[in-house]
Amino acid sequence: MKHERSHAPSALGAQTIGNVGLYYVCYRLSRLGWNVMPTARNAKGIDVVAYSQDAEQTRTLQVKALSKRNPVPLGNSLRRLMGDFVIVCTNVLTQSPKSYIMTPDEVRTRVHRGEKDGRISFWLQPKDYDLPEFEEAWTRIKTGA
Q1: Global model pTM greater than 0.85
Q2: What domains appear along the chain, each with residue ranges and CATH number?
Q3: Residue 117: how many CB atoms within 10 A of its CB?
């Protein structure tokens, strides 16, 4: 299997990787006919608001972007999981990112809880999101046309 190399600088930070994933999701939603608006970066909660061409439907999404197929960090509380969908994007610095479309409840039921030095953290392991029912399942969001 041929591995694709990124031509991006290797020192890209988490915020830049997050932006790449965010705009990739906006691109994919736009292709489905949604009008998309990314929210302010570094705001807690929803990352993208999408509405249909006739403005009758809306979707709110959280985007979790990763440079590789790694666990998804979810912080120290699951209360911040909200919206209609959580989209995990892996390999965002390559020519072939992969997306996994899940609901917040699906994430909650698969989450891993870690504790270290008295601090709690939540993670979504690759084996829990890299599943056929979620992989490139953009049709779950429907079309906005």
Answers
A1: yes
A2: 14-140 (3.40.1350.10)
A3: 4
